[in-house]
Design a protein that fits this description.
Elements (H helix, E strand, L loop, with lengths): L3 E10 L2 E11 L4 E5 L6 H9 L6 E6 L2 E2 L10 E4 L11 H11 L4 H14 L15 H13 L5 E5 L7 H18 L3 E5 L2 H7 L2 E6 L2 E6 L1 H6 L4 H6 L6 E8 L2 E4 L2 E4 L7 E7 L4 E4 L7 E9 L2 E8 L2 E8 L10 E6 L5 E3 L11 H4 L9 E2 L4
Parallel strand pairs: 3-8, 3-9, 6-7, 7-8
Antiparallel strand pairs: 1-2, 1-4, 4-5, 9-10, 11-12, 11-14, 12-13, 14-20, 15-19, 16-17, 16-19, 17-18, 19-21
Helix pairs in contact: 2-3, 2-4, 3-4
Length: 371
């Protein structure tokens, strides 16, 4: 397997900048996920690593050696696309064996490696079938088996699960992660699905408009979003955001009033609160908003509140979801779970993070609607 580094990598198409100044390191043996909306540059970045797109600037290094000028067949990587691209007139066995035959590997070794790959992915009973006799999930496993049979230096996967239904996608995510651990392989996976990214990633790279917005573990990105784009994009539902001002140690904005942790500078801010950190107060004397609707999600209920700040969503346990449409509610939030962003740069304001550790305990929630 291989360490992959990108140094100020850029890709342009005429006047259009598709990828701009991307710098990151993908350590060997990690499952890295490029996450972002359509058109953000994640697939173009993957294609440049694979050699399927030319690099307009910067360097790509495999184990410290530059590869940006090498053709794909000299990089020893394997790519799995959203389209399975299987040969319809060949059996599963022949589809898996195809790259080995192109490399003129001896027949006995081909048979052994095909059997081993098929066993790892549960394809042994299907080896003599043709793709049209397989389900979508089975076809995806064949594409993966064909990819891994060569034991390449890295596995690149471009939206490989997007054609699967929810149940099969969850199962295949687990199988992909198990496969990566078993092979101790360097995997790079492209997706726009944040739940998929959170499930798979050792390293998550969030992209927008051709640039890397944040990189880190899924937990780090979720807990400390680097900017408003990441805060809104990562998380289901999206982070609640409210514009306001910090003055005299309090946040004031759109009907909200709440003390803030020590260290948050005074001035205009954007306050962010995750849905699970927002509490609804049924007996508020001055409601901040009114309940619009409720939606049960497993053991929790998402309660949408119409307020002067727009729609806000709180995630509450089922047994606490006693709110009815039209009911006026106040809001409460633990200061430790507040996120603050600069309204001009949209970057995270970090000064309060050390002080926030010593903020009030969870059980002492602060009501943001003061009676």
């Amino acid at each position: 397997m291989v360490d992959i580094e990108l140094e100020r990598v850029r890709r342009t198409f005429g006047d259009v900048v598709a990828v701009d100044d991307v710098t990151l390191r993908i350590p060997r043996g990690t499952f890295t996920v490029f996450l972002g909306p359509s058109g953000c540059g994640k697939t173009t970045t993957l294609n440049m690593i694979a050699g399927l797109e030319d690099v307009s600037g910067g360097r790509i290094l495999f184990d410290g050696e530059e590869v940006q000028d090498l053709p794909p067949n000299k990089r020893d990587i394997s790519v799995v696309f959203q389209s399975y691209a299987l040969y319809p007139n060949r059996t599963v066995r022949d589809n898996i064996a195809f790259p080995l035959r192109m490399q003129r590997v001896p027949k006995a070794e081909i048979a052994q490696r095909v059997e081993r790959a098929a066993e790892r992915l549960g394809l042994t009973p299907l080896l003599d079938r043709r793709p049209r006799a397989l389900s979508g999930g089975q076809q995806q496993r064949v594409a993966l088996a064909r990819s891994m049979v060569r034991t390449p230096r890295a596995f690149l996967l471009d939206e490989p699960l997007s054609n699967l239904d929810a149940k099969l996608r969850a199962e295949t995510q687990f199988e992909l992660k198990e496969l990566q651990r078993e092979l101790d392989g360097t995997f790079i996976h492209v997706t726009h699905d944040q739940a998929e990214a959170m499930s798979l990633a050792d390293l998550m790279v969030v992209m927008s408009r051709g640039t890397v917005q944040q990189q880190g573990t899924g937990g780090e990105v979720y807990a400390r979003p680097a900017n408003l784009f990441v805060a809104r994009f990562v998380g289901i539902p999206a982070m609640n955001v409210v514009e306001g001002v910090v003055a005299d140690g309090r946040f004031e904005g759109a009907g909200w009033s709440a003390p803030v942790p020590a260290g948050v500078p005074s001035g205009p801010v954007v306050l962010g609160v995750r849905s699970e950190s927002l509490r609804l107060v049924a007996d508020a004397e001055r409601p901040v908003g009114r309940v619009q609707l409720s939606e049960q999600i497993g053991a929790d209920v998402l309660v949408a509140v119409d307020s002067d700040a727009g729609k806000l969503v709180a995630r509450v346990p089922v047994d606490e979801a006693v709110f009815t449409p039209g009911q006026g509610v106040g809001l409460a939030v633990d200061p430790r779970h507040m996120h603050f962003f600069d309204p001009e740069t949209e970057e995270r304001i970090r000064d309060h993070e050390r002080a926030a550790v010593h903020a009030v305990p969870d059980e002492k929630l602060t009501r943001t609607a003061q009676g």
